[in-house]
Amino acid sequence: MxxxxxxxxxxxxxxxxxxxxxKSLGQNFLLDLNLTAKIARQAGDMTACxxxxxxxxxxxxxxxxxxEGARRVLCIEKDSRCLPALNEIAEAxxxxxxxxxxxxxxxxxxxxxxxxxxxxxxxxxNVGTELLVRWLTPPQWPPFWQSLTLMFQREVAERIVAxxxxxxxxxxxxxxxxxxxxxxxxxxxxGAFTPPPKVSSSVVHLDALPxxxxxxxxxxxxxxxxxxxNQRRKMLRAALKGVVPQIEDVLNAAGIKPTERAEQxxxxxxxxxxxxxxKAKGK
Length: 283
Ligand code: SAM
Prior knowledge:
Blueprint: H1 10-16, H2 33-41, E1 50-54, H3 60-67, E2 72-77, H4 83-92, E3 97-101, E4 117-122, H5 125-136, E5 147-153, H6 154-161, H7 171-179, E6 180-188, E7 201-208, H8 218-230, H9 236-239, H10 247-253, H11 267-280
Parallel strand pairs: 1-2, 1-4, 2-3, 4-5
Antiparallel strand pairs: 5-7, 6-7
Helix pairs in contact: 2-3, 8-11, 10-11
The chain binds S-adenosylmethionine.
């Protein structure tokens, strides 16, 4: 019998430990272990990796990650009610699971992890985007993680993988695709969760690139992209006029028509624009 078979079904775990879902903590649990194993497999080969999981809850995905062979799993969970259930899993997998009670936005996991590191999580929706943006903007690149396998509301997942010309295309797509290969690998209906959320969900997998896809200064790129999409309906010559006075020349030098709108500009185009803006500012 493998370790996972010694553990009680997740529905029993929830009943035993009184884990009624709390909306304030974004608690929508995955109780189907076939599904959590399938999500864990999307993370790739974990046998030589430490895996960071945010928000394990009763531990459905945690079980999947361990059963699929993760070398070690480090969990950060804010809800102390989940700790007894997670400790049961830690006992079934000696020396492979560490649980930290705390807020993922405040805890620094690095002291507890040995590279190579993958991150996998059914994220609490209230903090998911903030964590993703942090993971995509570390002080140095490459980041501490090799890959991210993350559950998001479908609308957020679509913003991460969006291409130019679509409504979903914006800052998140540019940030994610500049630093990583990003794809949606699974779609889940509300009924896959207990309780079911109002919206559908998607699992996004991101592989870190060894270096950003096109050269650009991160601060300048972020400034230009923010300015362009803050006024996404305006032509770029108007939306970006506060960035540098000679914006039309700078856009032309970057190969972008001043009459285009942010939505039409590719990631490569934004990186070229960031380089021209930096040049115009004498950076
Ligand atoms: N991974 C579990 C699953 O798939 O069944 C639970 C997922 S549930 C969507 C989100 C989990 O994140 C909950 O267990 C919740 O308590 C936890 N959580 C919410 N905010 C958190 C935070 N700031 N830091 C760490 N965990 C958090």
